[in-house]
Amino acid sequence: MGKTWFVTGSSRGLGREFVKAALARGDRVAATARSTAGFADLVATYGDAVLPLELDVTDKAAVFENVRRAVEHFGRLDVVVNNAGYAQIGAIEELGERELRDQLETNLFGAVWVVQAALPHLRAQGSGHVVQLSSAAGLVAMPLGGAYHMSKWAVEGFNEALAQEVAEFGIKVTVVEPGGFATRDGKNPDPLANGHLAERSPVYDGLRRRLAGAMANQPAGDPAAAAQALLALVDADNPPLRVLFGQGFYPMIQRAYAARLKTWDEWQHLSARAHGPLEPATGA
User: Fold this and answer.
1) Residue 129 contacts by C-beta under 8 Å, 6 or more apart in sequence?
2) Helix, coil or strand: residue 50
3) Strand partners, 28
4) Is residue 258 situated within a structural domain?
5) Catalytic residue IDs
6) Which domain covers residue 107, as residue numbers?
7) How far apart are CA 113 and CA 13, in angstroms?
8) What is the total count of domains within the chain?
9) Which of 183, 234, 182, 221 is nearest to 25 (CA)?
10) Which CA distances in Å does 25 have to 9, 21, 31, 52?
C-alpha cells in the first residue's frame, strides 16, 4: 500500500510538486492551501486519492480540524509535510511589529500547530515521518532577511528537539533545507520582487541592489527534481535529521560553519574566563 500524506502550502511551488509526485506514484494526499480552487485538475485526475482542504496554518483550530478530517478520510497519515510559509523581506530597522508577528505566525507557529495536531495520530499507529521545509536561510543569515531567518532558525531548533522526543514512538523527523528553486515561471524567485516587502528606507537601497545581484547568480533548482528527492527521502529506512535540497548554497554553508568553529576555538580563553575557576574533582 502507498503512503498517505498531509501537505501544507500545496497550491504552488515546491508544495504542489510534492503533491503531484506523491499522487503520480499511487500515494494518497491531503493537500491544503488557503484556497482549494487550484486543485480541480488534480481531483479530476486522481479522484478520491487527493483530498483538497482549505487551510490557513495560522488558525490553530482549523489545523487540528483538517488533520482530523484527513485521518478520518484516509484512515491514517504516514508523511506530514510542513511546507506553508513565505519570506518577509526588510532590514531589521524597517520591520514593523505586525510584519514580524505575521512571519512567525505562519512559518513557525503554523508548523508547530500541524505537528501538535498530527502527533497523537502518528504515535497511536507507531509510525510516521514529519518533514519540515526550512531553508538554507535556516542555517546561514543574509542582510534584509532578518524576519525570515528568525522564523527558520526557530523551526530548525524545534524540529531537532522534536526528533529526540518522538523517536521512541517510531516517528521520524527530517528538516529539508532548500536553496533557490525555479518556482516562478522557471526562474529562481527574486525575494526583493516577490517576497513580502517592508516599507523601504533609502538608507538600505545599496544593500538591496547588492543582495539582488548575489541572488541572481545562484543556480535555480528544478522543483520536479526536488519532489523526486523527497520521495526518496520518505522511503529511506533511516532518513537524516537534516538534508539540503539543491547545491547553490552548500559552499556558503561550509564556510559559515567552519568560521563558527574557528571563532569559538580562538575565543576559548575568554569562554574559560567567563566560567570562572573550575571546582576540583571530588574523589570517590
Assistant:
1) 78, 79, 80, 171, 172, 173, 174, 234, 239
2) strand
3) 4
4) no
5) 134, 148, 152
6) 4-250
7) 22
8) 1
9) 234
10) 20, 7, 16, 18
Going by C-alpha positions, the residue among 15, 3, 31 that lies closest to residue 224 is: 15
Amino acid code (one letter) for 262: K
Q: Could you tell me if residue 220 is inside a domain?
A: yes
| Helix/strand/coil for 245 | strand
Digit-by-digit pLDDT tens for the chain (284 residues) are: 799 999 999 999 999 999 999 999 999 999 999 999 999 999 999 999 999 999 999 999 999 999 999 999 999 999 999 999 999 999 999 899 999 999 999 999 999 999 999 999 999 999 999 999 999 999 999 899 999 999 999 999 999 999 999 999 999 999 999 987 655 544 445 555 555 666 687 888 888 888 777 666 666 788 999 999 999 999 999 999 999 998 878 899 999 999 999 999 999 999 999 999 887 777 65
Q: Tell me, what CATH number does 104's domain have?
A: 3.40.50.720
The C-alpha cell of 258 is what? 567552519
Q: 95 in a domain, yes or no?
A: yes
Residue 87 is assigned to a structural domain of this protein: yes
